[in-house]
Design a protein that fits this description.
Elements (H helix, E strand, L loop, with lengths): L5 E2 L25 E2 L1 H7 L2 H6 L2 H12 L5 H10 L5 H14 L9 H4 L4 E5 L11 H19 L22 E13 L5 E7 L2 E7 L4 H8 L6 E8 L3 E8 L17 E5 L11 H11 L7 H5 E7 L21 H14 L5 E5 L17 H4 L8 E3 L4 E5 L8 E5 L5 H7 L1 H5 L7 H10 L28 E4 L6 E5 L2 E5 L8 H6 L7 E6 L5 E5 L6
Helix pairs in contact: 3-4
Length: 533
C-alpha cells in the first residue's frame, strides 16, 4: 500500500514472507495489482524490463470480465517462455512486437470491425431418452428460473410455499409463486386459476369487480409462472395483485460510440414461386454500396436473419406446386450464393424457422450441414439455434448489445387464445406479441402452443437474460416498438402473398428492412421493392 500497489488473494499462494521482493518494488513498472502471475515476472528482473505493463494490466482487466482470455494468456505464455526452445523462439518474436515503444497494442476485439458472441444457444442432450421424468424436470427448471426472477420483487420476497397456507389464518395476506395448472370462468363471471408449486395446488379467485387484476387474469395462459398476493380464504385465495416476471423498469438504454448499423431480415423463402428475387438482389446491391444511396449502407456491419430462409419441402400439403426449386439442398445452395455476394466486412447471424430443414420442435438446432453445407463455407456467417441469445459489438470498454433471436412459430396460438392480443390485432401488430412474451420472460409458456423437446437441464425458451433487442419473424409483418427499453423488431419477408395467406386474410409486408443505428438508437425502415428503387 505504501508503494501504491494492490494485492490479489492468489498472490499469497506463491509469496514467501522471507522474500524482500516487495521492499524492492520500483514505481516505474506501472503495475496496479500484484497477482500470482505478476509475482512470477517480478522474480525475474529480465522479464520486468521486457513486458509492456500497461497492456498487461488491460488484458488482465478484460480477462477478469470474461470478455477475452486470449490476450492475457499470450502474456502468460511470454512470462513462462523458457519451457520449450521452439516455443521460446516464437514467443520472443511476439514479445519484440509487443514491447516496441512506437506500437500501440490494441485488444483483439477492438481490431475487428464486427464482433459476435453467442451467449446462449441450445446444445442437444447426448443419448437422452425422453420419458415422463424429462417433462417433470423440464417444468421444474422453468419454475425455478422464473421463480428466481419473481422473488426479486419486493412484494414477493416473503412468498410462501402452497403447503404452508394452512399455517396462515383466515383473512391473512399471503404471497405465492406458482405455475398455472388450470383456468376457468365461473357462472358469475369471475376467473378461477389453479396455481401449482412443487408442494401443492391452490385455487386463486380473480373477482370481476377488481378491474385491473381481472384484466390481467384474462390474459393469463396455462403453464406460465406468476406471483400472486391475496387474502387467505382457507380453500381459496382472493387475489389482490398479480405479478409477472417481466422486464425491470430500470433497464438501461444502450448506445455505443461507433457509428455502425444493424440490419434485420427474415422469411426469405428461397425456392418459392413467390420469392422476390429481384427485390432481394436489390437489397444486396444496396449493401454492397453499388447505388448512389450508400452512406447508410457503408455503416452496416451486422445482419440478423431470423428463420425461414428457404421455403423447404413438404412443409404443407401440395407445397411442391408452389416451388421453383424442388430440392431443399439446392434451395440452400441458392441461398448461399446470394449471401456470398454480400461484402465480407458485414457479419451475418442466421437462425432457422419452421420452413427450414431442421426439426420443428423447439429449441431448433442450427441448420443441418447435410442440407446446408454451402452456408458453412461462408466465413462471415454465424449459424445459431432458434432461439438464440447473441452479443454484438462488444469491446474492452463496452459490453455490447444483447440480441434475442426467435423465429416465432408458436405466435398464432397466442393470437387465437389471448383476449388482448385478439383485440389489438397482434397478427398485424406483432409488437403486442413480443411485449406479451417479454412480460412472461418465456417464448412459449403454454404446453400446447408449440412442439418442444423437454430438456432435463433447463428450459431454453425462458428469457433468463434481459435483451437489448428482441427480434422475430414468421408473421411476414414488419413492426417496430420498444418495451421498457428493449427494442422489439418483427421482420417482414421476401415473399409475395401466397394462396394460403389470401385464404386467411393475411397480407404480407415484403422487402421492408429495419436498420438500427447502434450509436443513436434510431431505426430507419428502408423499402427495397422495385417500385421504390
Amino acid at each position: 500500500l505504501r508503494k501504491d500497489y494492490l494485492v490479489s488473494p492468489d498472490f499469497f499462494d506463491s509469496f514467501d514472507e522471507d522474500e524482500k521482493l516487495i521492499d524492492n518494488l520500483p514505481h516505474k513498472n506501472n503495475i496496479l495489482v500484484i497477482t500470482k502471475d505478476v509475482l512470477l515476472i517480478l522474480k525475474d528482473d529480465n522479464k520486468t524490463s521486457e513486458l509492456n505493463w500497461l497492456e498487461f494490466e488491460k488484458s488482465r482487466a478484460v480477462f477478469e470480465k470474461g470478455k477475452d482470455v486470449n490476450i492475457y494468456y499470450s502474456f502468460l505464455d511470454i512470462i513462462n517462455y523458457n519451457v520449450d526452445h521452439k516455443v521460446r523462439e516464437n514467443l520472443n518474436k511476439i514479445s519484440e512486437e509487443i514491447t516496441k515503444p512506437e506500437m500501440e497494442v490494441i485488444l483483439e476485439k477492438e481490431k475487428k470491425a464486427t464482433n459476435v458472441t453467442v451467449i446462449k444457444g441450445y446444445v442437444e442432450e447426448e443419448n437422452k431418452k425422453r420419458e415422463v421424468d424429462s417433462f417433470i424436470k423440464y417444468f421444474h427448471s422453468r419454475y425455478s428460473a422464473l421463480k428466481d426472477i419473481l422473488s426479486k420483487r419486493v412484494e414477493l420476497q416473503n412468498a410462501i410455499s402452497i403447503n404452508k397456507i394452512s399455517n396462515k389464518g383466515n383473512r391473512d395476506l399471503v404471497a405465492l409463486i406458482g405455475i398455472i395448472q388450470d383456468k376457468q370462468l365461473t357462472k358469475n363471471g369471475h376467473i378461477i386459476v389453479t396455481l401449482e408449486d412443487p408442494t401443492g395446488v391452490v385455487k386463486i379467485l380473480f373477482p370481476k369487480n377488481k378491474e385491473f387484476v381481472f384484466d390481467m387474469a384474462q390474459d393469463l395462459v396455462l403453464d406460465e409462472v406468476i406471483g400472486v398476493v391475496g387474502v387467505n380464504g382457507g380453500e381459496i385465495i382472493f387475489a389482490d395483485r398479480v405479478y409477472l416476471p417481466d422486464i425491470p423498469i430500470t433497464k438501461e438504454i444502450k448506445k455505443c460510440n461507433d457509428d455502425v448499423c444493424v440490419v434485420f431480415i427474415s422469411d426469405i423463402h428461397v425456392g418459392s414461386n413467390n420469392f422476390l428475387e429481384k427485390e432481394f438482389l436489390n437489397f444486396i446491391s444496396w449493401l454492397n454500396c453499388d447505388s448512389e444511396d450508400n452512406e447508410l449502407a457503408k455503416k452496416v456491419k451486422y445482419i440478423f436473419v431470423v428463420g425461414d430462409v428457404v421455403d423447404g419441402i413438404g412443409v404443407y400439403p401440395g407445397q411442391e406446386q408452389n416451388l421453383t426449386i424442388k430440392d431443399v439442398t439446392k434451395q440452400y445452395e441458392k441461398l448461399a450464393a446470394y449471401l456470398k455476394m454480400i461484402r465480407k466486412d458485414i457479419h451475418l447471424i442466421l437462425c432457422p424457422g419452421d420452413h427450414d430443414a431442421v426439426r420443428l420442435s423447439h429449441p431448433q438446432p442450427p441448420l443441418n450441414k447435410k442440407y446446408a453445407e454451402n452456408l458453412y463455407d461462408i466465413k462471415n456467417l454465424t449459424l445459431v439455434t432458434n432461439p438464440s441469445f447473441v452479443n454484438i459489438h462488444a469491446s474492452s470498454d463496452f459490453s455490447g448489445f444483447n440480441v434475442l433471436m426467435y423465429h416465432g412459430h408458436g405466435y398464432h396460438y397466442y393470437i387465437d387464445n389471448v383476449d388482448s392480443l385478439r383485440k389489438n390485432s397482434a397478427a398485424k401488430n406483432p409488437h403486442h406479441l413480443m411485449k406479451f412474451f417479454l412480460q412472461r420472460r418465456h417464448l412459449a409458456p403454454s404446453h400446447s402452443s408449440t412442439i418442444y423437446v423437454p430438456d432435463s437441464r433447463e428450459d431454453y425458451l425462458v428469457i433468463d437474460k434481459i435483451p437489448d433487442i428482441f427480434i422475430s419473424g414468421h408473421l411476414h409483418k414488419t413492426d417496430i416498438a420498444s418495451y421498457r427499453n428493449v427494442i422489439t423488431i418483427n421482420c417482414g419477408c421476401w415473399q409475395s402473398v401466397t394462396d394460403y395467406e389470401l385464404k386467411v386474410g393475411n397480407f404480407p409486408d415484403p422487402c421492408k428492412v429495419p436498420i438500427l443505428n447502434l450509436m443513436t438508437g434510431n431505426i430507419i425502415m428502408k423499402d427495397f421493392s422495385l417500385k421504390n428503387g
